[in-house]
Amino acid sequence: VDLWIAGAGGVGREVLDVALALDTAVAGFVDDGCSGTAVRGLPVRPMHELPERAAFLVAIGDPEARLRVATRLEAVGEAATLVHPRSIVGPFTSVGAGALVSGGAFVSSSVELGPHTQVHYNATVGHDCVLEEGSTVLPGANVAGAVRLGRAVTIGSGAIVLQGLTIGDGAVVGAGAVVTKDVAPGTTVVGNPARPLDPA
Ligand SMILES: CC(C)(COP(=O)(O)OP(=O)(O)OC[C@H]1O[C@@H](n2cnc3c(N)ncnc32)[C@H](O)[C@@H]1OP(=O)(O)O)[C@@H](O)C(=O)NCCC(=O)NCCS
Asked: 39 CB less than 6 Å from ligand 1?
């Protein structure tokens, strides 16, 4: 079955890269922002033109936006899972529908990658972690063992989350942060040790 990639921006093109590495045929993109154009020679259609029962993967960086689009497209098509052939996914790890694991990523054993989660290139996720739906680990971040990432969490590039911590729903860990304590839902933390970013 040919894959449709939802979102034709930077993440969309990176998802295309993963599909190419897997020899997965890609039919095109669905993206209301640039429908009617072509990206890397592939057609971009509006979201409502996703064909019935088509396989799709939502390639949108923002977790809440990704989950909204996923809910809409799941009424029509079927969420696919893409795991780059040059990533490592350990034994007893489950990879949810719509999840993405990019090149060079290392996901250890007994991990639960929930639906529509993303682990980007060269990021690591330790043993026994749970990533709830939509959680995202950006390039080069290291999430230690037995960490729980709530729904729609973002771990910024190069950040480190120490073992056993819980990052609450919708929280954002800034690029390069070192997280040493649980992070409350909806909070943005930065720095080493990570502290809440003062509201502007
Ligand atoms: C933390 C983050 C979400 C804050 O974004 P934001 O709310 O737009 O914040 P701003 O850019 O307005 O910055 C606010 C302040 O926080 C500081 N800041 C921002 N990100 C920071 C970080 N990662 N570490 C330390 N300080 C940071 C800024 O310097 C600024 O400080 P100032 O007020 O003293 O000038 C964002 O900067 C970030 O790190 N996101 C992760 C994104 C990522 O990893 N992208 C990679 C994609 S591949």
From this structure: no
